Amino acid sequence: MAEHQTSQEQPGKGPGRRPAARLIPAQKRSRERYERILACAVELMTEKGSDAFKMSDIVERTGIGFGSLYQYFPDKTAVIATLAERYNAIGRDCVREELSALKSAGDLHAVLCRITESYYDFFQREQAVRHIWQATQADRDLQKIDEEDGAFLTGLLLDAMRILPDVPETGLADFCQLQMVLISAAVRHAITLPPADGRRILDLFMTMLPDPLMAHAAA
Known about the structure:
Helix content is 68%, strand content 3%. By secondary structure, it is mostly helical. The N terminus is likely disordered.
């Protein structure tokens, strides 16, 4: 077995966007080194934020040389991109789980509220995620990862709603996209606030999520 797979073989690579990791290790020892780099990056972002940490910080903290580090990741953006895709995959699994409870249009409001809560809890639990998100606002490659994730989540909601009885197809894709964009924006705003303020804003937002009658009207 070859020691490495190129990152081009990874799923979820969008057209026109450079890959995240340069090499994806297959052998155990190399994989452990790769995971140490990513774990260290998470620690550094949690401590310093995405802007302040440097590749040299990873070298200093892990003892992994620059040569080995750059073998896997050409720059800091590649490290952040790899973590973004990893956390996005976790988020998608959470959304899938919540959408599994969507059996009728009457379930929509409660399901969207649970998705919002899960998303907020994820940001609160994984402090590095908020720093990764902040980094996506300043780098076009990282923005593309964020855009692709938003499109994927929209697709999950759209697929779940299409199989419901009595839900018209007209306008449904736009409706689903809008819901996921609004949930993302509300959560990301809430995490920038003091906890009590963020909680209040999020609770207010969830009262504005569509009930079954609104969902039918939008569709």
